[in-house]
């Protein structure tokens, strides 16, 4: 009896932004070339659901990053979560009452490579303003903007500098829809 496969979500950075256009068919093919079964994409922002026999997430991230860069010609940061972890992120409520995108309120989730040390998490949260709330939980950073993104004084680059590494951001609605669609499938 073989090892059962696990379902993962790869949150890819730099897909269909900054002039790096990649079709979702191409992404699926690239994942299948690596032997990852059942590859499916979810919206065109670089979310790939796939099955793998491997359980070393760090090694999977490295393998995917190398394969994508070799085939696409640019670096693609890869942040992998199990479907169970995505469900937990989707269900986590870091703020008393978050925005849903209406009225200029938006809750975003930044996926990180590792859990930041407490002192780094504290520095990130300290960046918060009257219109930006920040919360670190595990390998995710939650960012509630009480305004439109262009009105915020905080940038993704600024957050990455304080975090000391890359991240990729998704609207919580996307994360919740992804968890709902692929949970238990």
Provide a quick synopsis of the model.
The protein has helices spanning 24-33, 57-72, 83-91, 118-126, 156-163, 172-182; strands spanning 6-12, 37-41, 47-52, 78-82, 106-112, 132-137, 140-145, 167-171. It has 185 residues and is of the alpha+beta class. The chain is globular and about 45 Å long.
Sheet-strand content, in percent, reads 25-35%
Mean of residue pLDDT values: 91
* Largest beta-sheet details: 4 strands, antiparallel
Rg computed from alpha carbons, rounded to a whole number of angstroms: 17 Å
CATH architecture of the largest domain: 2-Layer Sandwich
Helix content: 25-40%
Topology pattern, helix = H, strand = E: EHEEHEHEHEEHEH
- The low-confidence parts are none
Biggest sheet, spatial arrangement of strands: 2-3-1-4
Specify the CATH class of the largest domain: Alpha Beta
Structural class: alpha+beta
CATH topology tier name of the largest domain: Alpha-Beta Plaits
Tally of distinct domains: 2
List how many beta strands DSSP finds: 8
Measure the end-to-end span: 22 Å
Provide structural commentary.
The chain has 2 domains: 6-86, SP0830-like domains (Alpha-Beta Plaits, 2-Layer Sandwich); 94-182, Alpha-Beta Plaits (2-Layer Sandwich). Helices cover 34% and strands 25% of the residues. It has 6 helices and 8 strands; from the N terminus they run βαββαβαβαββαβα. The chain has 185 residues and is α+β, with helices and mostly antiparallel strands. Helix 3 (83-91) packs across helix 6.
């Amino acid at each position: 009896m073989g090892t059962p496969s696990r379902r993962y979500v790869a949150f890819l950075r730099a897909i269909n932004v900054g002039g790096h256009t990649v079709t979702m068919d191409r992404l699926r093919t690239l994942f299948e070339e690596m032997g990852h079964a059942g590859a499916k994409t979810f919206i065109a922002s670089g979310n790939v659901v796939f099955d793998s026999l491997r359980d070393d997430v760090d090694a999977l991230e490295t393998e995917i990053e190398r394969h994508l860069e070799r085939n696409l010609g640019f670096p693609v940061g890869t942040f992998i979560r199990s479907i169970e972890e995505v469900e937990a992120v989707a269900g986590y409520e870091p703020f008393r009452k978050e925005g849903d995108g209406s009225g200029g309120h938006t809750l975003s989730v930044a996926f990180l490579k590792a859990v930041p040390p407490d002192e780094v998490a504290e520095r990130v949260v300290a960046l918060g303003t009257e219109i930006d709330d920040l919360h670190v939980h595990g390998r995710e950073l939650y960012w509630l903007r009480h305004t439109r993104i262009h009105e915020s004084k905080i940038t993704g680059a600024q957050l990455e500098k304080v975090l000391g590494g890359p991240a990729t951001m998704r609207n919580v609605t996307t994360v919740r829809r992804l968890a709902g669609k692929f949970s238990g499938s």
